Amino acid sequence: MSAATTQHIYLDKQHPAVWRALNGLGLKVREAADAAGVDRKTIELLHVRTSQLNGCAYCLDMHVRDAVEAGESPQRLAVLSAWRETALFTEKERAALALAECITELQDHTAREREEGYARQHLTADEFSVVSWLVITMNAFNRVSITSHHPVRRDR
């Protein structure tokens, strides 16, 4: 293999207009989340959980920091991947996390209906829609970072 075929292509740098459009979508989704009353801690929990499921180190690094900045506790972040096994999350957060997993993993029809039904019991229509958009958008960002091999920089 030549150096040209092993060098990573940063999709965001290769097509910056497309990257700006994705960021614009992210901003619109954040505005919708604010309007629907979804708080920043919940938004960051969804970003972290989606990034955990996708294995996106770059996004995990960024959104764990953002979650801490938003006031999220290290304990809840530490157990987030096992959120179903703890009582540390509210019913609304659990519903949002269940929906996030359902969307990210694209479960079978029966599992999707069960998880969406659970989410609908605890989320308003606006919250359900916003959580869905937050997760859909985060999945797109994860895929850009994973495909681009965006590096996680060491703390200084």
UniProtKB/TrEMBL annotation:
It comes from Pseudarthrobacter sulfonivorans. Pfam families: CMD. This is Carboxymuconolactone decarboxylase. InterPro entries: AhpD-like (IPR029032), AhpD_core (IPR004675), CMD-like (IPR003779). GO terms for molecular function: peroxiredoxin activity. Residues 28-101 form the Carboxymuconolactone decarboxylase-like domain.
